[in-house]
Design a protein that fits this description.
Elements: E1 15-22, H1 29-39, E2 43-55, E3 58-63, H2 66-80, E4 84-87, H3 93-103, E5 110-112, H4 133-136, E6 141-142, H5 146-153, H6 160-172, E7 178-180, E8 191-197, E9 202-208, H7 218-231, H8 236-252, E10 255-257, E11 260-262
Helix pairs in contact: 1-7, 2-3, 5-6, 7-8
């Protein structure tokens, strides 16, 4: 366990540890995290939790042993002293527990994108969604989409009132702050509204909906971009605003890669 580790003060690019599964296409997952951190002017250090194979009709996951994940993250935090940590695919309860142990008393911001499944529907979490909660309680911010928030709370999210209720429910369950992403809500609207739910208030943030097809990896990229901004010292609302503005531009600049849309 790492104890008392604090991020260093630096005038140069911040270092961010990104943790998750490898999607070989680079459209989502750990490779997208690295690309995002680099695009945002940060230095990324990757810790893999699994190798995946994803394509039409193909879904395979090869988890890394939890002990290896724990050792890699603990050594990285101790040696690199990152400004922030972002966690995506946590595989299952054993790996999630290993991540909690490795984080120890790390004092910097931790952003978690609670990945449960791929955009194609393949499972990326082994176990009940609620078994992810101990790890989510370790986060500075958790960034579920509407489907993930519904799974974590056991309810349904069809509108913004239900999204806020889900965010409040997650705070009552011990989370510190939740950004419920609104991309799956009111999909006929030209506006997307995300809800940043904290103990003090619910803060809606609206931005233009970019015309489909939607590129893969937007959730991965947003959480990583927020981690970069928090690592630079931004407060939570400012970090979310800056990351969302960047992501909206990246979605608008998306390109076709191997038959699928990737962020620009």
């Amino acid at each position: 366990m790492i104890t008392g580790v604090k991020p260093p003060q630096t005038a140069g690019p911040v270092s961010v540890v990104v943790i998750g599964g490898i999607d070989p296409s680079g459209g989502a997952g750990l490779l997208r995290d690295v690309a995002t951190a680099t695009a945002r002017g940060a230095r990324a250090h990757a810790v893999g939790t699994a190798w995946t194979e994803q394509a039409d009709g193909i879904h395979r996951v090869e988890p890394r042993p939890p002990a290896a994940v724990r050792a890699a993250l603990a050594e990285t935090i101790s040696g690199l002293r990152p400004a922030a940590v972002k966690i995506g695919m946590a595989v299952g309860p054993a790996t999630a527990a290993a991540l909690i142990e490795a984080l120890g008393d790390y004092a910097g911001p931790v952003v978690i994108d609670p990945v449960l499944a791929t955009s194609r529907g393949g499972a990326l979490w082994e176990g009940a969604p609620q078994q992810l909660m101990p790890l989510l309680r370790r986060a500075t911010l958790v960034t579920p989409n509407a489907t993930e928030a519904a799974a974590l709370t056991g309810g349904s999210l069809k509108n913004f009132q239900e999204a806020e209720a889900a965010g409040r429910s997650l705070l009552e369950a011990g989370l510190r702050a939740v950004l419920v992403k609104g991309g799956h809500l009111d999909e006929g609207s030209g506006i997307v509204t995300d809800l940043l739910v904290t103990a003090d208030r619910t803060r809606p943030q609206s931005h233009p909906r970019v015309a489909p097809p939607t590129p893969r990896g937007t959730g991965c990229a947003l959480a990583t971009a927020i981690a970069v901004e928090l690592g630079r010292g931004a407060d939570l609302a400012a970090a979310v605003d800056a990351a969302t503005e960047w992501l909206t531009s990246a979605i608008a600049a998306a390109v076709d890669v191997g038959g699928e849309r990737h962020l620009g």
